[in-house]
Amino acid sequence: MKVYIKNKIWSWGGGSSVVDENKQPVYKVKGRVFSITRVKWICDLEGKKLFKVRNKWFNWFVHKAYVYDANGTKLCTVKDKWLQLKGEFFIEGYKDEIKIGGKFLSLNAEILKNGEVWGTLRRQLTFITDAFELDAPEEDLPFLIALVIAIDNIVDKKIR
Questions:
Q1: Range of the structural domain that residue 14 is part of
Q2: What proportion of the chain, given as a percentage, has pLDDT over 90?
Q3: pLDDT of amino acid 22
Q4: b or e along 91-125 (b: 16 or more beta carbons within 10 Å of the residue's beta carbon)?
Q5: For the chain, what is the domain count?
Q6: Residue 56 belongs to a domain with what CATH number?
Q7: Which ranges constitute the DSSP H helices of the chain?
Q8: CA torsion, points 124, 13, 19, 117, in degrees to nearest 10?
Q9: Confidence class for position 108, pLDDT limits 50, 70, 90
Q10: How many angstroms separate the CA atoms of 147 and 120, rounded?
Q11: pLDDT class of 70 with cuts at 50, 70, 90
């Protein structure tokens, strides 16, 4: 299933919209106002919290973000490498081996689970906000949206 994740231009907490190919909302991303660690919640349409994403507060060379389930249990750590040449991101602590290959700052990336393509991520060209197209199995979308938000948080923190 394809979904489109677009950061909102005017949002107190840095929220995002998640819509399907027909522009119908499928999930919500709500940000926390005045959050040093850029806390964001991935929620269903009724507002039920599914995943929490937050950056590591202080980074030296390797930038990290964390993904938690709705109960606050840490599921994984998303990180880049110190000397980033390929733009890859690695997910540690998850039950499966996950890697985001390709160049996140370019237009295309693959999400690999145990060495096989689990989903594809395409950066949408916009002048004002970050936007992404995610193509992945429907049952895995909320977690993969959380990964995309975590990586976007890391990239935003590195740039600013």
A1: 2-159
A2: 51
A3: 96
A4: beeeeeebbbbbebeeeebebbbeeeebbebbbee
A5: 1
A6: 2.40.160.200
A7: 141-159
A8: 60
A9: confident
A10: 12
A11: very high
